[in-house]
Write a structure and sequence with these properties.
Blueprint (H helix, E strand, L loop, with lengths): L120 E4 L8 E3 L2 E3 L2 E6 L3 E4 L8 E3 L2 E3 L2 E4 L3 E5 L3 E3 L2 E3 L6 E2 L7 E3 L8 E3 L4 E4 L52 E4 L2 E3 L8 E8 H7 L12 E7 L5 E2 L11 E8 L25
Parallel strand pairs: 1-5, 2-6, 3-7, 4-8, 5-9, 6-10, 7-11, 9-12, 10-13
Antiparallel strand pairs: 14-15, 16-17, 17-20, 18-19, 18-21
Length: 387
């Protein structure tokens, strides 16, 4: 040993780089990144482990790509020569510009994020006492572009009660997985629902579901008018009287009574979907004389509202029912079926003036529909009788 600086207080054996190794034990006591127990860092120009036999530019996983270009040199399945595998959350080709959320296999479907779910609704029963009940709804045109369950995601895995999803329409809902319903963790009943043009597929179960599936249909519900957002059933709809009666509510979305014997078999059963056909619309309104009209009714105890209105006002305002303060419009509320035919001695007077009549069914808590206009849209009742 030599006292190079002629200073006895300067240690000849020291750890100059404070890496825990004395200069006699390591290869470069001026670099804290170089010491005998160090891990060789790829292509940094330093003998990190103080072992000349360890290659600085190595291919540790022996996949043919050295560590300077291989983003995971401890995994031979990851290197620049690999094809990106979509949706595995791994940079397979060592190229950050290649998206993991991609349609790699060109089947039209990209990655699915299972945490993004339920385009129309998500029903979760997390408590043991909870119970899912989704009855007589309409799920239309919902979308989950990067998620699951375009229409409904339902999960009652932790619940003890038997849930039920029944009498619903799932139409044209879209997701990356499970267009209609995803029910992997649902163990209840999927009964008497209708599925139509959901993509991809109507019902998806990844293998865990214990749901019972009974009486479901896969047909066009035959609505009045999708462009006009009239999702009531037409008379030809296969969903009329096709619902499960034991669970159906006693009124529909518009508080119209259900069930109604829509198919005429003398057995009233609920329809599938949010609206009951025919929503107690009054049919066959006819003049029985020049001053009297009549219409069909089901029961002598039925009551109706009668509206008289001005055709010119309708053209100008779009209102089928009109304020009674105007010269022509009038309304008669709670007209009993037993009083038919209904008599009105009104005379328009002015040549060219046209008056018309509309009749609605009057329930205990609701008023029935005015029917559809010529384009299939539901007529609005702007000035209804007081209920």
């Amino acid at each position: 040993m030599v006292d190079n600086d002629c200073d006895p207080s300067t240690l000849d054996v020291d750890d100059l780089d404070n890496d825990g190794f004395l200069c006699t034990m390591e290869c470069d006591d001026h670099d804290p990144l170089a010491f005998p127990s160090g891990v060789e860092i790829c292509n940094d120009g330093i003998d990190n482990d103080c072992n000349p036999a360890t290659i600085d530019l190595a291919d540790a996983d022996m996949d043919g790509y050295t560590c300077d270009v291989d983003c995971a040199d401890d995994d031979p399945s990851i290197n620049p020569g690999q094809v990106e595998i979509g949706c595995d959350e791994i940079d397979n080709d060592c190229d950050p510009a290649t998206p993991d959320l991609a349609d790699v296999d060109m089947d039209g479907v990209t990655c699915v994020d299972a945490t993004v779910r339920g385009g129309g609704a998500t029903a979760l029963a997390r408590a043991s006492s909870a119970k899912i009940s989704l009855i007589n709804n309409t799920f239309y045109d919902n979308a989950m572009p990067s998620g699951i369950a375009g229409g409904l995601y339902v999960d009652d895995m932790n619940a003890n009660g038997v849930g039920i999803v029944s009498n619903n329409i799932f139409y044209s809902n879209v997701a990356e997985l499970g267009g209609g319903i995803v029910h992997t963790f649902f163990y209840g009943e999927l009964h008497n629902n209708d599925f139509f043009t959901n993509a991809p597929g109507d019902l998806y179960d990844a293998g865990g579901s214990g749901a019972s599936k009974v009486g479901n249909l896969f047909v066009d519900p035959v609505w009045e008018s999708i462009p006009l957002e009239n999702y009531r059933l037409q008379e030809a709809s296969p969903l009329i009287d096709a619902g499960e009666p034991s669970v159906a509510p006693l009124i529909d979305f518009n508080r119209v009574d259900r069930p109604y014997d829509g198919d005429g078999d003398m057995i009233p059963l609920p329809d599938i979907g949010a609206f009951e056909w025919p929503s107690r619309e009054v049919f066959n309104l006819v003049f029985t004389a020049t001053d009297s009209i009549s219409w069909d009714f089901d029961d002598a105890a039925d009551e109706f509202n009668v509206y008289r209105a001005n055709l010119l006002n309708l053209k100008n305002t779009g209102n089928y029912t009109q304020p009674t303060q105007l010269p022509i419009p009038n309304q008669w509320c709670q007209v009993p079926a037993t009083s038919l035919p209904f008599v009105d001695m009104f005379e328009p007077g002015t040549p060219g003036t046209v008056a018309y009549y509309l009749v609605t069914y009057r329930g205990i808590t609701y008023e029935g529909s005015l029917g559809n206009d010529s384009l299939g849209g539901l007529r609005s009742n702007a000035f209804p009788c007081s209920q």
